[in-house]
Structures are given as structure tokens and as C-alpha cells.
């Protein structure tokens, strides 16, 4: 079917990242927006195929008029996908982003514990990662901040927060919603520049038009830095290969990350073969 391939590829990549296990309970944090609507459908499908159970968790912030409409959209998603929806509401208070984020994660933790889940999934995507890295840079954060959001982190003891869409653009998620006929809400506060993240997003819009791979590049840099700081084996081999190639001809700048990373992972696997790095340079493994 024409146009189905991008959706099928997204579903396959998502399932591989999640690696659902039979019998486990998977919680999706669903706000009602297009990103989380796509997440909900992807997780529901992945869970069903693996013999797991998906649960949608919606936290109503109650700070704007349309909040109840968002909840209605999430309930409609649950009904359409045959998935249980658990809702929670935050106590009245300020619209401070830090407060809302902290209390939202506290509610998600409560819901996950109540349904017996060990993992909670959110719909953070590639543009969110870019904005997170830039906000950290503007704050003068050190390397930890510039690593961006990790795919996985501990949310509470015995509970993991997973962001399986960090390399996916929001346009792809919205296209997935249209292709799968998923309802979703539009948050009008996304264009209010009083919120720092929205201001960064607005400033990036013309840059994204001129540099279409901007988000992928920032995400890659964040991943590289995170792996370097964690002492990831692939990162160590990449560094060694780069140093050796620099010693050979004095310039390794033309090496692409993808080729260097593929060669490093081949070395770690002990995969025999030849790996093209750049014109005139190949890495031979196992011969």
C-alpha cells in the first residue's frame, strides 16, 4: 500500500527499542497531543504482538480551559485502541513548568505502581531533544546537561522512564496519526513565547528550514557525549580509531560518525570484513 512503508518502519523501530516481554504491563504517558497519540498507538500494537498489556496514563494539569478536552481525547484513544485509560489530576497551583513536570512524574509513578508496571513511556521526540540541549547550553550547563535526555532513566526505584521516540521527528508522528486515523488535540500554549521552550522552538524554526538535519545532528552529538562520559565500549573504540587515523594522515575530520560507529561496533562484535571509512581508507576486521 502506497505510503505505508514509513509507518511500518516506525512501528518496527519502536518495537525493537521497546522489546516488550510477554506478561508485562507497559504504561504510556498520553497528553492527548499528536506525539503522545502516536506513542499510544505504537505501544498498544507492540504490547499486543508481544503478549504484554498497555495502559494509558493521562495527567490533567488543570491549568487551561482545554484540559478536559485533552482528557476526552485520551479516553477516545483508549476506546479506539482497546486500552485501559487511567487518569489523574494535579492539585491547583501555579503554571510553573518545573512544578508541573515534577508533579506529573509523581502521578505517573503512582499510576505505574498501581497497575504493576516497571516501565513508563513518554513521547519526547527529536525536536524536544534539540531544545533540551540548547536550553542546557544557554544555562551554562556542563557536559551532563549537554548530553540531553537519555532514552532510559530511573523514575523511581524499580520503575524506568523510557523515551523511545527521541530520534523521530514530530512531523513523522503527526503523519502516523493521520495514516492511522488517530484523534489528537492541539495545545494552544505551544505558541506562547512566555514559556522558554516555546521561545527556543520559535527561534529554531527558520534554522530548521535552512538545516533540515539540524535535529538529527544535535541528537547525535548528545548521544556521542553521553556515551563518551559513560565510558561506552563503542565510544572508546571510536576514539581509538579516530586517533589512529589522525596519526596516519593528520586529519580525521572527513570521517562520518555513522561509518566510524559502524566500524567500532564491528570491532566489538568481532565481525570479519572490510569497512569503508573514507576515500582511500578501509578498516579490515578479522583478517
General description of the model:
This protein has a 6-stranded mixed beta sheet with strand order 3-2-1-4-6-5, with helices on both faces. Strands 7-8 form a two-stranded antiparallel sheet. It is α/β, with parallel strands linked by helices. The protein has helices at 4-18, 34-50, 67-81, 97-115, 126-138, 143-146, 170-179, 196-210, 214-230, 233-249, 257-269; strands spanning 25-29, 53-60, 84-89, 119-121, 152-156, 159-162, 273-278, 281-285. It has 2 domains: 4-208, HUPs (Rossmann fold, 3-Layer(aba) Sandwich); 231-285. The mean pLDDT is 87. The termini are far apart. Helix 2 (34-50) links the parallel strand 1 (25-29) and strand 2. It has 11 helices and 8 strands. Helix 1 (4-18) crosses helix 2, helix 2 packs across helix 7 (170-179) and helix 10 (233-249) crosses helix 11.
Question: Which labels suit this protein?
Answer:
54% helix, Rossmann fold, 8 strands, single chain, 2 domains, 287 residues, two-stranded antiparallel ribbon, six-stranded mixed sheet, alpha/beta
Structure summary:
The chain folds into 2 domains: 4-208, Rossmann fold (3-Layer(aba) Sandwich); 231-285.
Number of domains: 2
Number of strands: 8
| Distance between the amino and carboxyl termini | 44 Å
Could you name the ranges where pLDDT drops below 50 across 5 or more consecutive residues? none
How confident overall, as mean pLDDT?
87
Please name the CATH topology of the largest domain.
Rossmann fold
